[in-house]
Structures are given as structure tokens and as C-alpha cells.
Amino acid sequence: MTAAIPTRSGVLAVHSVDEFVFSVPALEEARHFYTSFGLDVRDEGEALALYTHGHPHRWARIVAGTSKRLLWMSLGIHEADAQRFAQRLAERDIARIAPPAEADPEGFWIEGPDGLALQLKVARKCSPSQPAPREFVPACDNQGRAPSRSKAQATRPLYLSHILLFSADVDQARSFYEDVLGLRLSDKSGSVIAFLHTPHGSDHHLIALAKSNGGGLHHSSWCVPSIDAVGQGAQQMAEAGYAQGWGMGRHVLGSNYFRYVRDPWGSYAEYSYDIDFVEAGNAWPAADHPGEDSLYVWGPELPADFIANHELPAPSGNH
Predict the structure, then answer these.
(1) How many C-beta atoms surround the C-beta of residue 235 within 10 A?
(2) Distance CA 161, CA 219 (A)
(3) Is residue 310 one of the residues assigned to a domain?
(4) Residue 185 within a domain
(5) What angle do CA 40, 44, 50 make, to 5 degrees?
(6) How far from the centroid of its chain's Cα atoms is residue 29's Cα?
(7) Which of 11, 208, 271, 293 has the greatest number of C-beta atoms within 10 Å?
């Protein structure tokens, strides 16, 4: 029998980022980037589908477009909550919208913060329901604890941990995700960044929000099982031609070790190891942290354009 997935009984909230969909101007570049990153990239119709090796869930799709742009996000809900969500949307006067042309029309389609199309759909919980696995080198041997470079295995992420979205108004967006969709605040730093988890159990953040002049996708974060996997991933991406990024380092909020790899369009894919976990039904001690704690404990200096939102139109020059 399949073990029951822990959940928070009676609490109305989305439980997972079921899928996110974005466009890029060059699908073959995207294929090379995400294949090099260690994902299982498949052709599905006119899109590229992102899976993790050995996992049946489709985490994302990439379609051809004139620019890199986050198009929509699908959020999973429990079947027993569908009618309750319909009632909540009506009570909050949240209008339904038509789904994007390429999207599955099932569930509830609504306009989220910053004009992002959101789908609420009945789906199996795919956000983690327990802390991520942690692999360590043998503790007792005094020799041979490091793998041979010639035998080192390429990093392959296990699952999607979270995504970070840009927002023109972090406080307003956070209010929407909390009040309408039922997410809970994990931590924040003023009105600049906020981290949200689901009360049904997830990593420290399922969705994060960062201040910008508009919406967009800053990064997707993928769980790996060891700090060696973070370093190996950084190396394999540099060898594949993607040396730009940030890290290795360690975050304060979420506690995870990280390496962000910059994609060809200015956003990032993150290798994440050992992130904090919020169990279903447990309260996280949310707090407002100083700006210096919103980024990292240790690591290289932040790249100057790390928080640039490349989905926004370029500023017009002076004439």
C-alpha cells in the first residue's frame, strides 16, 4: 500500500506548485541548459517538458516565444477542497479568466498578482512531504572519503523545491497568496522579499516573492541530496558553458546550501541542499529579518545584476 501523504486536515490551501510554464526565444538552448543541469528534458507536443530522472511528475514546460517570460503557474489542491475553493473565490470576488490557449482548461483559472495567470487544479501533492534526503561521506574512514573525479556522477536533481517570483508589490502579492490561496508566511525582510510555505507540508518556501517593477520568474530551485552534488552541479554547468551564477554559499532564511546557475535569458536555476522543512500542521516561527540576513550567511559577493528582472521591457534610451 502507498503511504498516506501528510496533510493539514481542514485547512484550505494549495499544496503544491504543480507546474510552471514559461517561454524562451530558443528552445534548443533551453534543452541544452536544462539537460546539462541534470533534468530529464522531453519533447511533448511543441513544448519541452522538464522532469527529474526517475520521478513521474512533470514540473515545468517551456514553449517558444519572442522572449523569456513566465506565462502561467498551476497550483495543486486536494479534491476534497475543490468546492471550498470555489466558494472562497466567490466570497473574495476573484474573477475567473479564460485559460491560456496552450493550457489545460480544467480547474479554476484566476488572475494572480502582477497579472500572472494561475490555475487551481485537483492534483496529487508533489511538494515534499518530508525533509529532503541528506547524503554524507563516511564518518569513520580516514582515507578515500572523497569520490574519484574520474568516477564522480553527474548531479541529477530530485524534485522541484520552490520558485521565486518577482512582484511589483511584495506585500500585496503575499496577502493574495495567503488570504486567497492559503499559504503561510515563513520569513520576510521588510517589503523586499517574502517566503511562503503550504500548511500541508513543504520546504521552507514553496513560493518566494522578490521586489521588482513587475512580475516574472527569478529562479526555479531543485533539490539535490548532498553538498557535493551542489559543487558537482556547479562544475558540470561550467563545463557545459554556463559558468555565470552565484555560489556556492549558504542562505540564512531556509538554511540551504546553494549554487545559482544563470540561464541564457538572465534568470536562474538553483541547486539546493538541506533546506528547512515545515511539517504539515506545524507552525513556523515567521519573522521579519534585517536585509543582510535575507540573502546569505557565507558565499561570494552577490552579482550586480542578480535581482534584475529581465522579463521587463528594457528602459528606453534618451534621445
Answers:
(1) 16
(2) 11
(3) no
(4) yes
(5) 30
(6) 21
(7) 271
